[in-house]
Design brief:
The complex is a heterodimer of chains A (116) and B (280).
Chain A lengths: L16 H6 L1 H9 L3 H9 L1 H8 L3 H9 L2 H6 L4 H10 L4 H9 L3 H10 L3
Helix pairs in contact in A: 2-7, 3-4, 8-9
Chain B lengths: L2 E8 L3 H8 L9 H4 L2 H11 L3 E6 L14 E4 L3 E2 L14 E2 L2 H13 L5 E3 L6 H10 L9 E7 L9 H16 L6 E7 L16 H13 L9 H8 L6 H9 L5 E12 L2 E10 L2
Parallel strand pairs in B: 1-8, 2-7, 2-8, 3-6
Antiparallel strand pairs in B: 1-10, 3-7, 4-5, 9-10
Helix pairs in contact in B: 4-6, 6-9
The chains are: A mainly alpha (116), B alpha/beta (280).
Pfam families (chain A): LigA (PF07746)
GO molecular function, one term (chain A): protocatechuate 4,5-dioxygenase activity
Protein name (chain A): Protocatechuate 4,5-dioxygenase alpha chain
Chain lengths: 116, 280
């Protein structure tokens, strides 16, 4: 394998070749949630829907937990995960709050503070 | 020959779609952002572009990880918006300009940009919302469009320097197009924001402001950074400034900023809007 320097940015997972391979099944399922029929099928029978995509054990556990950091660790890409979060009516501030361990109001305040 | 009348760069945060649908433009949260647009509408009424080349990034509507082109150009007679999964209203189809599409494709490949060409292409919020901001009237967008999509989903992401060169090549191709069309180039995305990880909510106002100024004073400024450095400075999704850079680079020589708005936050994002007009 060619020499490649991996860059480390705290609190950040670059969606690189490693993540793209690891997360393929999970991201493929999340991509399918562009269609309402698929979102409905997931809601109707979550286990059966996940089984169709062959999720890995960590991916299944992460989906069950609804935990975004865990979903990222399992290879999830945030653009596809946003479609998964949409099923539960969660927006990017909900998932921002969850990932940073804040309440949504605290997270919004953090964003406001960035403008000062 | 065709002429680039100007370049407009703007954020494309999905929440803008909700604000438009809910008529929230005058709410205190939204007003500073939406106020950037009436002067641009007046400018568009004056310069009357015929076609918009829209440089944007797909977020998993048209492209999945099975096939992920670095640069792709639409060559369709019509582009449809579709459900992205999290519930903003779908906008009406956009009319393509296939003559300009194929002209761009031919010229760009000839200049060694090995593109993916798309005769069918769904366009997501990053394409549709900026056009709705610029042409807010009911119904379909009144001018023709050519989408140019840059991969910012999966690394390796093309470098700032490469995106700048792509923009220059698009500008040269438009200038060489045997047409009297007036072309506006739109770049969408940014500015600093990060949706994922413990660093979610990251915003870097000083960097954003420096970047915006650089588009006027020193447009290649951002090309000194690697993609990873840009992520460090602007957040994982702040990398969308690449689209602004490519759009700016389509204009040869100096520009003046006729509109320059920076406002944060919109959702998790520092939002920016600029209208750049060629001086020459």
């Amino acid at each position: 394998m060619a020499e490649q320097q991996r860059v480390s940015i705290p609190g950040t997972t670059l969606f690189d070749d490693i993540q793209a391979q690891k997360g393929y099944a999970l991201n493929k399922m999340c991509f399918s949630f562009n269609d309402k029929a698929n979102r409905d099928a997931f809601k109707a029978d979550e286990a059966a829907y996940c089984a169709r995509f062959g999720l890995t054990a960590p991916q299944l556990a992460a989906v069950q937990s609804r935990n975004v950091l865990q979903l990222i660790a399992a290879g999830g890409n945030v653009y596809y995960l946003a479609k998964f979060a949409g099923i539960f009516g969660l927006d990017v501030q909900d998932i921002g709050a969850q990932q940073t361990g804040m309440s949504k109001d605290e997270f919004k305040q953090k964003l406001l503070n960035a403008g000062q | 020959m065709a002429k680039i009348v100007g370049s407009i760069v703007t954020s494309h945060v999905p929440a803008i779609g909700r604000a438009i649908a809910g008529n929230l433009q005058n709410e205190p949260y939204w007003k500073p952002f939406f106020d950037a647009f009436p002067p641009i509408h007046r400018w568009l009424d004056e310069v009357k572009p015929d076609v918009a080349v829209v440089v944007y990034n797909d977020h998993g509507l048209n492209f999945f990880l099975d096939k992920m082109p670095t640069f792709s150009v639409g060559a369709a007679p019509e582009y449809r918006n579709a459900d992205e999964g999290w519930g903003i209203p779908t906008l009406p189809p956009f009319t393509g300009d296939t003559e300009l599409s194929w002209h761009l494709i031919n010229q760009l490949v000839n200049k060694e940009f090995d593109l993916t060409t798309c005769q069918e292409m769904l366009v997501d919020h990053a394409f549709t919302l900026p056009l709705k901001l610029l042409w807010p009237q009911e119904g379909a967008c009144p001018i023709k469009v050519v989408p140019v999509c840059i991969n910012t989903v999966q690394f390796p992401i093309p470098s700032a320097s490469r995106c700048y060169k792509l923009g220059e090549a698009i500008g040269e191709a438009i200038a060489a197009w045997d047409s009297d069309a007036r072309v506006v180039v739109i770049g969408t995305g940014g500015l600093s924001h990060q949706l994922d990880g413990e660093r979610a909510g990251f915003i870097n106002k000083p960097f954003d402001l420096q970047f915006m100024q650089s588009l006027v004073d020193n447009p290649k400024w951002a090309t000194q950074y690697t993609v990873e450095q840009l992520v460090e400075h602007t957040g994982s999704q702040g990398i969308e400034l690449l689209m602004w850079l490519a759009a700016r680079a389509t204009i040869k020589g100096d520009v003046r900023a006729l509109q320059n708005t920076y406002h944060l936050p919109i959702s998790n994002t520092a939002a920016g809007v600029m209208l750049l007009e060629p001086l020459a």
